[in-house]
Design goal:
The protein is an alpha+beta fold. 18% of the residues lie in helices and 39% in strands. Strands 4-3-2-1-5 form a five-stranded antiparallel β-sheet. Strand 1 (16-21) and strand 2 form a beta hairpin. The longest helix has 10 residues, at 2-11.
């Protein structure tokens, strides 16, 4: 069964998928990498880059167009999931 999930993961590379593991956990994210033993998911998080009001923060963000009231883009958490623990892998719709 692991070989089947490996082939499906390769076909779904860079697509938004859902994965359920044998311990009952569910993960959704973009397939960032597939090797012989693992799938690497890039999981979107709602954590934003912090915005402070000091001069050094303005230098980091303000000079590149990040102004107060503007939120920088979302970040991703990387998670490696071993193939033997995957019980289902399926495509999910992704809307911007």
């Amino acid at each position: 069964m692991d070989n089947a999930y490996h082939q499906i993961a390769m076909c779904c590379m860079n697509k938004y998928v859902g994965i359920t593991t044998s311990d009952g956990q569910s993960h959704d994210g973009f397939i960032a990498n597939v090797d012989q033993a693992y799938i690497d998911l890039a999981i979107p998080t709602s954590e934003m880059v912090g915005m402070a009001t000091d001069a050094s923060t303005y230098r980091q963000f303000g000079q590149f167009g990040f102004h107060p009231g503007f939120s920088p883009r979302r970040r991703f958490i990387r998670r490696r999931i071993p193939f033997p623990f995957i019980t289902s892998l399926f495509l999910l719709p992704f809307f911007i």
